Amino acid sequence: MKKCVCTVCGYAYDPAVGDPDNGIAPGTAFDALPDGWACPTCGVGKDLFEPE
């Protein structure tokens, strides 16, 4: 699984780590994130992320 980077603030979502502060378990692929998930740093949606 590859990382995806926010094009607004540079936050990198790492599937190996997940987003535990927002209930996303380690091992969750970016494509499997819920539609309402947003960048934990700047709050933009998944559509503003690109593969690293």
Which percent bin holds the helix content? under 10%
How much strand content do the residues show? Answer: 15-25%
What is the CA-atom radius of gyration, in angstroms?
10 Å
Instruction: Summarize model confidence as the mean pLDDT.
Output: 97
Number of strands: 3
- SSE order, as H and E? EEE
Largest sheet geometry: 3 strands, antiparallel
Cα distance, first to last residue? 11 Å
Category by helix and strand content? mainly beta
Q: Which ranges are low-confidence, i.e. pLDDT below 50, for 5 or more consecutive residues?
A: none
Shape: globular
Q: How is the largest sheet built, in terms of strand order?
A: 2-1-3
Provide a count of the helices: 0
Structure description:
This protein has 52 residues and is mostly beta strands. Helices cover 0% and strands 15% of the residues. It contains no helices and three strands. It has strands spanning 4-6, 12-13, 49-51. The protein has a three-stranded antiparallel β-sheet, with no helix packed on it. A hairpin with a 5-residue loop joins strand 1 (4-6) and strand 2 (12-13). The N and C termini lie close together (11 Å).
Set out the fold topology.
Elements: E1 4-6, E2 12-13, E3 49-51
